[in-house]
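Milestone M4 deliverable, item 7.
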Amino acid sequence: MVRLGASKKTIAALLCISTVFVIFILNSQLNSSTRRRIRYETRHTLSVPLTLNLSKNVTILRLPDANNRIHRYKLERIDEEEEEEEDYWRDEEEEEKEMRNLREGAAEEQFEIRADEAKKNSEDGLKVKEMPNQTVDREPQVNRPPQTNSKDMQFKHQALNISKEGNYLLQVSDPRYGRMIGKVLSKLPKDVRKDMTMNIRMVESRTRMDFMKLPTNKQWEVILRVYASKGYKQRFPDVINIGVKKSGTNALGFFFPQHPQIVHSIGNEVHYFDWMYEKGLSYYKSRMGFAKPSMLAFEKTPRYFVTALAPKRILADLPTKPKFILCVRDPISRLISDFRHESELKLRREFKSNRLKYASRTGQFEGERLKREILDKFGHVNGSNEMVDTSVFVKHYKNWLQYFPPERILVIDQVKMEKDVYAEMKRLEEFLELEPFFSPSMFYFDPAKNGICMREGHLPNRNCPAKSTPSVLPKAIIDPETLAKLKEFYRPFNQEFSQLTGMSFSWAN
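Output delivered:
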């Protein structure tokens, strides 16, 4: 304590004024946003030492009085953040919405935090009240050399160092990447889980912060280091599911990565070669899963198939020679499903407050809406409509054949996929020269889900593919006249596609 040449009463008065001043400062922070970080430091302008004991739920403020007694003030954490609103839409819709927002130029927020600030950060919303009759004798402070934690030093000086140069995840701290980190941590391989847990605890102990509240680039630094120590790394994909949208790509993306040699990208769809191309290859690699040399990296973006520049970009940019999976479906059924999907995306936020409004819609009503969208003013099928054009498989397939030979593209018919998932998974194993893994006993039909699932024991969380469309709107019912026009429109395209692929489709004639 600073020695003051004054009476004890004067010192006590000064201390009281200082205490009131400190409490006033803390109370003023209650009116600020709950998302603002407050920094409490030992550096201050008071004439007495001020110490903070940080803990998970409570912070203790200690102030000495004139008699060298410590008065303790309890700072209780008040969590005023709103809970995230439950969203019944699945991951595919959420990521598609997120990609669209990014495409429109949503600014990336940068978060910088200094090491000393990370040690002393405390959440907003602290309520101050004095703890009555709780005083302790103040012990003299002794300058001790900082203790070295052997585990901490081992963590800092691991043989494998992660360079920030060229690593998108370490250069950019974006709050949206917190969701990616959650996906990575929820699917840790067995040989990584123990080390990841140990290193996260070390970071939390050193920074006195919850790991998930650190800037995302700091979290990625830990994750990348642990994975690298086990021989995993992010690399460009060896196999890409390029489409077609609403043709069973979601089911394939669920079953196929169950093979131990297949590593799915982080998140459902990457959208690099269509929407996010300007971000560069460093960004693309950052969205890939962590794979060992014996594994194959896999990503799925159905929109690549209809993006004219996608095959040219892949050929020019990827140092690997990836193979491709193309899922196809009856063009008319695909069109109807696509229309339902896009309609629900448009009303996804409005639906929650207008459920009764949309519950009154019928299949015939949706059929009329679809008819008005796909037919021109003369009553002909509008081939320039995006949903109609997506089902013209042969047009887009020819574009891909300009850059890649047909031997690099495996075509999967959704009809055959639904009848025998095992047979299609075996085709994939042979196509990619994988070790045999799938067996017929793994798959079964679930009447409640009205689809194919995997038996318990093969998946940690769920056994059935999630629906990519919640189906809150009824399926459009097309009148016979419009249906006939669609069949006539697609017939020549279907036949040519069948000839090019050398496959027979039930919907080709």
